[in-house]
Write a structure and sequence with these properties.
This protein is mainly alpha-helical. Helices cover 76% and strands 1% of the residues. It is found in: Membrane.
Amino acid sequence: MLALLALAGTWGRDLGVVVVVIVALVLAAAVLAAVHHAEVVAHRVGEPFGSLVLAVAVTVIEVALIVTLMVSGGPESASLARDTVFAALMITTTGIVGLSLLLGAQRFRVTLFNAEGSGAALATVTTLAALSLVLPTFTTSQHGPEFSSSQLAFAALASLALYGMFVLTQTVRHRDFFLPVAQEGQREQEDCDEHAAPPSNREALVSLALLLVSLIAVVGLAKVESPAIEEAVAGVGFPPSFVGVVIALLVLLPETLAAARAARRGRIQTSLNLAYGSAMASIGLTIPTIALASFWLEGPLVLGLGSTQLVLLALTVVVSVLTIVPGRATRLQGGVHLVLLAAFLFLAVNP
């Protein structure tokens, strides 16, 4: 509610530095509030539905930020969708996964998870990334790393189809593949003791309503803050593409905290569901939305990755497969993933 008041007071006005900082804090609080209410709803519906709710909520925020910045940015924001989606992909598959494995291994030495479910999620994420971010670099219908209209439509429909099939698999057909796996040495009652009782239906409905309010506030405040984000990135001398990294870091921070909490409780599968679910939703829902928005957005839509990004993506896929296939991991695997995240962030600043 405070975010809505801030939105009403700042919409359409030129903001000073102090007001920009205050609005940024309120925006961050609104993001945390949105994910908190998503967690309440998720706790009511249970796992793996909870991870799905969180992933979709975060992706709605991400899509809103991308579209508002693209509308206000003009032709200079042609690659914003690509930069943000790729940043979200790297943060989730290297950062969240690496941190979760590291935290879990610190407590249980060897972390256990379901290779069938996590492998299916990783395969879907890899296919989505290849269709939407890799192929535009090599297609010849358009000059540069862009899709033609028909190719963009195909990529959007394929993304929706893949995401829909995965959700059906995760929640209906093979739900047991995505349920938490008990860790070695973990007490049977320990996990139950660390969880509060599920909220009532009334509390879940109230949180659902407040989740929608929070998302509306985030969309509006993102529009208000967009000039300041771009000016700040330019002011410190970072490449314009770093705006996408800022957006991804902002919207995925609460998701990272949720995954870290789950990992410390030994619920590594929940952490992986959050990570890969967010990566999947980021591509599978953002690309179709941007495809629709391209009808009224002026200028080109750059989706193809550059050579450095392609190398990072290929290395991430190979490392992720080697991590997921055994169904168990140690601190080493977590550290390798985090080093990949560090390489991505360093090269985003210093390409």
